[in-house]
Specification:
The complex is a heterodimer.
Chain A: H1 3-11, H2 17-32, H3 36-39, E1 41-45, E2 48-55, E3 58-66, E4 72-76, H4 91-100
Antiparallel strand pairs in A: 1-2, 2-3, 3-4
Chain B: E1 8-16, E2 21-30, H1 35-49, E3 56-62, E4 64-67, E5 81-89, E6 94-100, H2 119-130, E7 145-155, E8 159-160
Antiparallel strand pairs in B: 1-2, 1-3, 2-8, 3-4, 5-6, 5-7
The chains are: A alpha+beta, B alpha+beta.
């Protein structure tokens, strides 16, 4: 198989849903310091890895994306404004405060 | 003399521009990665790099080299311009990944800094820092790449076919 064919075969979907789930699980672990499974379940929604959290009888969706300057921003549900986790003592404490607010 | 297995496998992607200059991007993965898995990783990584550049991917090497001859080149490409990604790793050491001839569309408004909010760039960085096809790229020490702390376009001299340029 020629290189171009190899690349074109991969280009259609080089990042699989399994990759998306793995990415979000790793990102949650790195940023919040806990396994994603301790907070909820990671699912692929609209092509993105999303952490679905059940808390206080509500199902919440935690998404992430990279800002232009490379840092990762977190978003809750459909809110277009990123969470401000840096003001909390730890990102996890900040996340829990946001979930409970 | 005792030969020892290197801790990493080097995956080197080659790019060519319209001046027939060549440049490379190198990504390291763990030495214990099975060759077939490494090739799967390399083809996926290539697919993520191609949308970011207007140079032509001419080949990659993973244990066994693979080369493509006579690939078309794009007129505006220039592999002496690189997208330089400065990476952090789990062992706190820093390393870099360079991608030859980046498209202007992946740069921020200052035409210098990489725009990480670009979907193609984000996917590319996700693959480098979070893995692809179950393979997590590493630095030269074998430590996982965990993040990118800066990225910008830089001009570095490259090699010209038939008359090698150093530096």
């Amino acid at each position: 198989m020629e290189l171009e064919e190899l690349v074109n075969d991969e280009r259609s979907n080089p990042i699989t849903d399994d990759d998306r789930i793995s990415h979000t699980s790793k990102m949650v672990q790195r940023v919040f310091g806990v396994e994603a499974a301790q907070l909820g379940t990671v699912e692929v929604i609209d092509g993105k890895g999303v952490l679905v959290i059940n808390r206080n009888g509500q199902q919440r969706r935690l998404r992430w994306a990279r800002a232009p300057r490379a840092h990762v921003q977190w978003f809750l549900d459909d809110d277009p404004a990123p969470l401000r986790l840096s003001s909390a003592r730890t990102p996890l404490i900040g996340l829990i405060a946001e979930l409970d607010s | 003399m005792a030969l020892a297995l290197k801790p990493t496998i080097s995956v080197v992607f080659s790019f060519r521009d319209n001046d027939n200059k060549n440049s490379t991007m190198e990504v390291l993965i763990p030495g214990a990665t099975a060759p077939a898995t490494a090739i799967t990783f390399a083809t996926g990584m290539a697919a993520l790099a191609v949308p970011l550049v207007d140079s032509t991917l001419t080949g990659f090497n993973v244990v066994i080299g693979y080369r493509e001859a006579g690939a078309l080149v794009i007129g505006s490409s220039d592999v002496e311009n690189k997208a330089l990604f400065l990476m952090t790793a789990a062992n706190a050491q820093q390393s870099s990944v360079t991608l030859p001839s980046p498209l202007e569309s992946i740069l921020q408004g200052n035409n210098q800094d990489i725009d990480y909010s670009n979907a193609d760039v984000s996917d590319f960085i996700d693959a480098l820092t979070l893995g692809l096809s179950g393979v997590q790229p590493v630095n030269a020490s074998g430590s996982d790449l965990t993040g990118v702390y800066d990225g910008y376009k830089q001009n570095r001299r490259s090699h010209v076919n038939g008359r090698q340029r150093k530096g």
